[in-house]
Structure to design on (289 residues):
């Protein structure tokens, strides 16, 4: 079988699988049905790691037959695991996919060795984040001894308006995108002390761009300082940030200027690797709205 035949066969198989899962969703957009099915995965949290079949179907608001079919489809591909008595939890396929993305994500690959060097240079725990939808997602961390508790860690998301890692990304978004963000979130912008109107907001972000970094205190964890600097792709568009964090009580012993310089250098190194193709491919910025 040729490569083209294999691809066509795979496409037919996927089409058949989708027909099996969405077979009686007559008149519905398959993409909408798929999104509905995948939304089941968002239910599972640390506070609620197991969900019953009935509760999942109640959440979906679909017919029981459709709900059962969605659950069965996710279970069949390993995204859900049955744990007895009609309960489910997240499945082992997610662990496998996490390994694959670590092996394939250009930004993750471009950061190899950089976070470790940053921890060695500053003595503080280091983080790597990426722009994701209307939020910031941590994709990698390297912890220093006695690092702050509840550190931002891989897989966690935070809003664009709080924390050094978020604010530095926000400041480099295109002007038209910033206008849209401000129009939808003026109260959040004000709460984050980024400005009480559009002109203040624009001026605050302009200062961040001029400085090339953000430093914050206690915006998520009380008494924790954070410093973040921007990371760009080969088209010089913002895709993420790198930074460090330390306890407020350590401040008298911290060379803040040296720490900021180390973070900015780390950001430049990852950006240079992205621009040179070390990450493996061009990585576009994730959509923000």
């Amino acid at each position: 079988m040729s490569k083209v035949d294999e691809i066509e066969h795979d496409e037919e198989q996927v089409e058949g699988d989708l027909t099996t899962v969405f077979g009686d969703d007559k008149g519905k957009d398959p993409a909408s049905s798929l999104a509905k099915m995948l939304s089941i995965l968002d239910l599972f949290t640390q506070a609620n790691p197991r969900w019953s079949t009935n509760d999942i179907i109640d959440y979906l608001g679909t017919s029981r037959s459709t709900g059962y079919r969605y659950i069965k489809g996710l279970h069949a591909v390993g995204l859900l695991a049955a744990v007895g008595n009609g309960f489910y939890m997240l499945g082992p396929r997610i662990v496998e996919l996490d390994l694959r993305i670590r092996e394939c994500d250009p930004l993750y690959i471009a950061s190899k060795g950089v976070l470790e060097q940053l921890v060695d240079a500053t003595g503080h725990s280091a983080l790597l984040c990426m722009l994701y939808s209307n939020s910031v997602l941590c994709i990698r961390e390297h912890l220093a001894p006695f690092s702050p508790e509840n550190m931002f860690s891989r897989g966690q998301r935070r809003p664009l308006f709080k924390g050094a890692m978020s604010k530095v990304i926000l400041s480099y978004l295109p002007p038209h995108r910033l206008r849209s963000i401000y129009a939808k979130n003026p109260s959040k912008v004000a709460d984050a002390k980024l400005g009480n109107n559009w002109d203040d907001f624009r001026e605050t972000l302009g200062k961040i761009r001029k400085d090339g970094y953000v430093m914050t205190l206690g915006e998520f964890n009380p008494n924790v300082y954070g410093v973040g600097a921007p990371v760009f792709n080969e088209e010089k568009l913002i895709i993420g940030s790198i930074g460090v964090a330390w306890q407020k009580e350590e401040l008298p012993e911290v060379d803040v200027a040296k720490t900021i310089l180390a973070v900015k250098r780390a950001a430049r190194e990852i950006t240079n690797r992205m621009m040179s193709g070390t990450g493996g491919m061009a990585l576009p910025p994730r959509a923000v709205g």
